């Protein structure tokens, strides 16, 4: 088999800013060992997130110029609406400024005290919006999904037995919605199988619980189904996507992911009464229903991106490039989550830095080392992000200490990716020199964004 090439050529380029190891050591120190406090132009390869960081196509940029900025009835809205109707089979489409705005609207209506929202795994903004309404979010991911180093094809699946048990325990009347996140972002970008969606749907239907899809990475998930699930190898991606959405009553979407847009999102659904309630809230917080917090030009870019993302040459390149870096790291003995997900690689920092105890934030220490050594910016997903304190102010660590390197869509080439794996492997060879960190300043909530740290000498 020949090399899988980037299915695009480059018309417009952005410079990367180079700096030296000595400069980066000082920059990291000034940023108090927190990558969120580093200026973007001091980063060589930015793998902080795949959200809103995609490269748009020449077609999308052309669409930007054609955006119709009319307040009501913009032709860009009708293009956006038609694209999403065809993609999802859902007739009612509501634009929002990003995914969390769609969530805020939906859970303001369906949430409230005493209610439970069940999911394979809720993304953090989804959970936050559920909890803000007074309801509870419940993650019921399958057993394979709980073990980072054990490979399985669909580690994002929901545990169907656990779902049945949970419904029996709490009562279907207290569960306004079941949400399947594709791919499972918080669970490592792992896909959900069509069979699992079908089984979850059957349970939901029997209990009259509507099923919604958190659809941020629907195309990546569909491609994994094509690659890994029996009976789908010869089906087209749009066809698989259509089947996936056919089981759901609605969806929320961040267009900053699988729509190659820099901003945007939407809600889509089948129920007219619910859509009317959503539109009423939309007008208060986002805008009139034909623009919903977006410019007409954004609606154009999203509509075009949603079509482009289902191109199989693109998806093959996308999934393969994540697998490629993952394989290189595995061959060098670097502990990573297996198999590779759809949008990021996850390094197991506890196994990478066994000499650093969790109280000294091995994930954050590794993030710092990758930046100093090669100018790569990743993010800690461990005890700095999810750790809590007990009554004695002792750290209650997160379940896992991971470092996520998320790959922006269509932005970096294979040589960038080769460089990233070289840097990680070099840092791995010198891992004993890396020191743990202590926190010197932190906020009471979401502390990882602003925390200040320093190394333990
Ligand atoms: C990014 C994301 C969201 C939230 O979308 P924003 O556009 O960032 O508000 C929700 N769910 C999942 C799975 C995501 O990845």
Main β-sheet: number of strands, strand sense, barrel status?
7 strands, mixed
Uncertain regions spanning at least 5 consecutive residues: none
- Overall average pLDDT: 96
CATH superfamily of the largest domain: Type I PLP-dependent aspartate aminotransferase-like (Major domain)
Structural class estimated from helices and strands? alpha/beta
Count up the helices: 16
What is the total tally of β strands? 16
CATH topology of the largest domain: Aspartate Aminotransferase, domain 2
What is the strand content?
5-15%
CATH architectural name of the largest domain: 3-Layer(aba) Sandwich
Kindly state the percentage of residues in helix.
Answer: 40-55%
Description:
With 457 residues, the protein is an alpha/beta fold. The chain has two domains: 21-50 and 311-455, Aspartate Aminotransferase, domain 1 (Alpha-Beta Complex), CATH 3.90.1150; 58-308, Aspartate Aminotransferase, domain 2 (3-Layer(aba) Sandwich), CATH 3.40.640.10. 40% of the residues lie in helices and 14% in strands. It contains 16 helices and 16 strands. It has a seven-stranded mixed beta sheet, with helices on both faces. It has a three-stranded antiparallel beta sheet with strand order 9-14-11. A two-stranded parallel ribbon has the order 1-10. Helix 1 runs antiparallel to helix 14 (362-374) and helix 2 (58-66) runs antiparallel to helix 11. The longest helix is centred in the C-terminal third of the chain and has 20 residues, at 312-331. Pyridoxal-5'-phosphate binds next to helix 4 and helix 5.
């Amino acid at each position: 088999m020949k090399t899988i090439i980037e299915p695009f050529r480059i018309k417009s380029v952005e410079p990367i800013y180079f700096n030296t190891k000595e400069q980066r050591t000082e920059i990291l120190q000034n940023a108090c060992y927190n990558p969120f406090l580093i200026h973007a132009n001091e980063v060589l390869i930015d793998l902080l997130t795949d959200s809103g960081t995609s490269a748009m196509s020449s077609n999308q940029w052309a669409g930007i110029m054609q955006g119709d900025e009319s307040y009501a009835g913009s032709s860009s809205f009708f293009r956006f609406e038609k694209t999403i109707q065809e993609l999802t089979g859902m007739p009612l489409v509501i634009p929002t400024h990003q995914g969390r705005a769609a969530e805020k609207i939906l859970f303001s209506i369906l949430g409230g005290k005493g209610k439970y929202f069940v999911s394979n795994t809720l993304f953090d903004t989804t959970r936050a919006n559920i909890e803000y309404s007074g309801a509870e979010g419940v993650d019921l991911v399958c057993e394979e999904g709980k073990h980072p180093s054990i490979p399985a094809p669909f580690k994002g699946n929901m545990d169907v037995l656990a779902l049945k048990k949970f419904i029996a325990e709490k009562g279907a009347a207290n569960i306004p919605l079941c949400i399947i996140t594709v791919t499972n972002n918080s669970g490592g970008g792992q896909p959900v199988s069509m069979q699992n969606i079908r089984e979850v749907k059957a349970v939901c239907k029997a209990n009259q619980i509507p099923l919604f899809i958190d659809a941020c990475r629907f195309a990546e998930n569909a491609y994994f189904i094509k690659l890994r699930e029996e009976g789908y190898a010869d089906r087209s991606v749009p066809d698989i996507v259509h089947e996936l959405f056919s089981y759901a009553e609605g969806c929320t979407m961040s267009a900053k992911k699988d729509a190659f847009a820099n901003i945007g999102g939407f809600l889509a659904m089948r129920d007219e009464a619910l859509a009317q309630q959503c539109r009423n809230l939309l007008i208060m917080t986002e805008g009139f229903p034909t623009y919903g917090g977006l410019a007409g030009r954004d609606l154009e870019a999203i509509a075009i991106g949603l079509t482009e993302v289902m191109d199989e040459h693109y998806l093959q390149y996308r999934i393969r490039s994540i697998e490629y870096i993952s394989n290189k790291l595995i061959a060098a003995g670097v502990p990573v989550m297996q198999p590779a997900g759809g949008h990021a690689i996850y390094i197991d920092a506890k196994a990478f830095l066994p000499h650093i105890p969790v109280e000294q934030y091995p994930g954050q220490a590794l993030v710092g080392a990758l930046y100093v050594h090669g100018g790569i910016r990743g993010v800690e997903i461990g005890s700095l992000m999810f750790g809590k304190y007990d009554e004695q102010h002792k750290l209650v660590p997160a379940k896992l200490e991971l470092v996520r390197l998320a790959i922006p869509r269509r932005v970096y080439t294979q040589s960038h990716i080769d460089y990233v794996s070289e840097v990680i492997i070099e840092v791995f060879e010198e891992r004993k020199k890396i020191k743990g960190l202590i926190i010197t300043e932190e906020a009471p909530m979401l502390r990882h964004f602003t925390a200040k740290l320093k190394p333990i000498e």
